[in-house]
Design goal:
The structure holds two protein chains of two kinds. Chain A is mainly beta. Chain A is built from no helices and eleven strands. In chain A, strand 7 and strand 8 form a beta hairpin. In chain A, 39% of the residues are buried. In chain B, the strands form two sheets. Chain B has a five-stranded mixed β-sheet, with no helix packed on it. In chain B, strands 2-7-6-5 form a four-stranded antiparallel β-sheet, with no helix packed on it. The N and C termini of chain B lie far apart (38 Å). In chain B, strand 3 and strand 4 form a beta hairpin. The chains are: A mainly beta, B mainly beta. Chains A and B meet through strand 5, strand 6, strand 9 and strand 10 of A and strand 3, strand 4 and strand 8 of B.
Chain lengths: 113, 109
């Protein structure tokens, strides 16, 4: 079956703008988690959605938000972009949620100038 | 979430068995132990997950002692393509999912 897909794959934005990233999980998976990866901070957990409800949240400012739709697709929004938001944003889907067997997408490379 | 400690880096040679140990002294009763592999510019890939004793799949084995305060990922006969970062995570559902720094494994010819 198809894996996790993320769109767009690459994005260049200017400081102060906002951005929306999309993630389509594996069919049948109800959990979608988002991560930010940078060379300095490594992989950091943003939040997890399970059946349209945010179940877990990492330690990120309110500029980072997300949502999940009834078909389990998820979007992540970052408002008022800062240079430090440049990163690879990864989403992962899981049937059971939490740390149970997650499957990651290829990521969206966001560059903020 | 149980904090994990892994070696920062390891070197090996092709054809050798590699064992990466992860310490998680404050693991909770309901926590599972999960290992991921990540190549540069790609998302992590699930390798194996276990709760206790030994779990084996087509790519690795996971050894968990009775006290569950540590776990060892075993990669049999590594190849150059196994060069990657390996992450150990401990937790279950409804947990803040934190990846540590991981172990950078370098396989040499």
């Amino acid at each position: 079956k198809a894996g996790v897909t993320q769109t767009p794959r690459y994005l260049i934005k200017t400081r102060g703008q906002q951005v929306t990233l999309s993630c389509s999980p594996i069919s049948g998976h109800r959990s979608v988690s988002w991560y930010q990866q940078t060379p300095g901070q490594g992989l950091q957990f943003l939040f997890e959605y399970f059946s349209e409800t945010q179940r877990n949240k990492g330690n990120f400012p309110g500029r980072f938000s997300g949502r999940q739709f009834s078909n389990s697709r998820s979007e992540m929004n970052v408002s008022t972009l800062e240079l430090g938001d440049s990163a690879l944003y990864l989403c992962a889907s899981s049937a059971a949620g939490g740390l149970y067997e997650q499957y990651f997408g290829p990521g969206t490379r966001l560059t903020v100038t | 979430l149980a904090k994990t400690t892994q070696p920062i880096s390891m070197d090996s040679y092709e054809g050798q068995e590699v064992n990466i140990t992860c310490s998680h002294n404050n693991i909770a009763t309901n926590d599972y132990i999960t290992w991921y592999q990540q190549f540069p510019s790609q998302g992590p890939r699930f390798i194996i997950q276990g709760y206790k004793t030994k779990v084996t799949n087509e790519v690795a084995s996971l050894f968990i002692p009775a006290d569950r305060k540590s776990s060892t990922l075993s990669l049999p006969r590594v190849s150059l393509s196994d060069t990657a970062v390996y992450y150990c995570l401990v937790g279950g559902d409804n947990n803040d999912m934190r990846f540590g720094a991981g172990t950078r494994l370098t396989v040499k010819p």
